[in-house]
Recover the amino acids of this structure.
């Protein structure tokens, strides 16, 4: 599903190997993800290039040479990390034990309240923790601020998500 904020943005710069640079991470951006202010597709677009999935000419995102072999074998095309349970489980399991608490340690995230606990939101928390772990493994800092997509209002139905979000399976 297209994301108007991303489609209207200039093309991202390219890395030396020709792959597009991933969207820059910041504390403000990750908090917006946790607050359900971005689409599920945007959350995936934060992770896919960091897993080595590259946009193809046909609009699909096949695994690239930097995609970890286990990911490329299980998901030859970039998976919908929020909508697809197997992809979300693999993302959770790919976070090294020493990085499992980064969400709490770096963002002070205490979790969602019982009334707000939905698979979409817990998978978003997993995605943010994975992104923090990705930075930690590379020794990269998390800036407080940075570019943000056009932020959305939190969905009125958190189970269904934003218009265009895929159903969570």
């Amino acid at each position: 599903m297209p994301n108007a904020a991303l489609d209207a943005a200039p093309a991202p710069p390219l890395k030396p190997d020709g792959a597009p640079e991933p969207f820059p991470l910041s504390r403000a951006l990750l908090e917006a993800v946790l607050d359900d202010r971005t689409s599920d597709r945007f959350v995936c677009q934060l992770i896919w290039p960091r897993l080595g999935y590259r946009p193809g000419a046909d609009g699909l995102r096949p695994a690239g040479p930097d995609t970890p072999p286990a990911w490329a074998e299980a998901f030859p095309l970039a998976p919908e990390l929020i909508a697809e349970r197997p992809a979300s489980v693999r993302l959770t399991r790919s976070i090294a034990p020493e990085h499992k608490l980064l969400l709490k340690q770096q963002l002070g995230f205490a979790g969602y309240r019982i009334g707000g606990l939905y698979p979409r939101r817990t998978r978003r928390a997993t995605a943010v923790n994975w992104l923090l772990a990705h930075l930690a493994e590379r020794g990269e800092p998390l800036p407080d601020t940075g570019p943000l997509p056009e932020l959305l209002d939190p969905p009125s139905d958190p189970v269904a998500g934003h218009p265009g979000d895929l159903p969570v399976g």
Summary: The radius of gyration is 15 Å.
